[in-house]
Write a structure and sequence with these properties.
The chain has 177 residues and is an alpha+beta fold. Helices cover 23% and strands 32% of the residues.
Length: 177
């Protein structure tokens, strides 16, 4: 629906010739074909910021918004907050099925994070990460369950693998007696 030559992170997208992009009430892109009145508008799940000249900034996927404790939580926003922490190199979060719905955080640690994990263990490290997130994320948006991994699960083209993320939480960790 659009192209760009990326010179910077905030380079806007330009709609392909013959298309007009609008924004719906949810902040998602709606594609219109002005030259084809027989074509109905197509609503995407891509959240955008529309600029006055018709170009736009892509803000992420709307389908990565989940309801936790009655609040709308943006998974990319939680991931960005985690990745700003000194102990975190990369992070993905997923909503965990069940009652109540909770967030699970999958984290690749920095060297300092791996050292801290060895010192205090996974349970306490998860609590520490929640405390560090508290100033920027409300409690509902903070992961409750953690998995610390060497690499994030991704699909062939480098996109997040939601199924593999959930599998990490499906496995029960057995406790030594």
């Amino acid at each position: 629906m659009a192209t760009r030559q990326q010179r910077s992170e905030r380079e806007p997208w330009t709609p392909i010739a013959g298309l007009r992009i609008a924004v719906n009430d949810d902040g998602c892109a709606v594609v219109h074909w002005p030259d084809r009145p027989d074509m109905p508008p197509f609503e995407t799940a891509d959240r955008i910021e529309l600029l006055a000249d018709g170009r736009f900034h892509l803000l992420g996927r709307a389908d990565l918004i989940v309801k936790i404790e009655g609040k709308r939580v943006s998974l990319p926003e939680v991931e960005a907050a985690l990745q700003r922490l000194d102990l975190v190199a990369e992070a993905s979060v997923t909503d965990l099925q069940g009652e109540p719905t909770r967030l699970g955080g999958v984290v690749v640690l920095t060297e300092a994070g791996r050292t801290k994990l060895a010192e205090i263990g996974a349970f306490r490290l998860g609590r520490l990460l929640r405390r560090e997130l508290a100033p920027t994320l409300e409690a509902a948006a903070q992961p409750k369950i953690w998995r610390f991994v060497a690499a994030l699960p991704k699909r062939a083209l480098g996109k997040r693998d939601n199924v593999a993320l959930r599998v990490l939480f499906a496995r029960r960790v057995s406790r030594a007696a």
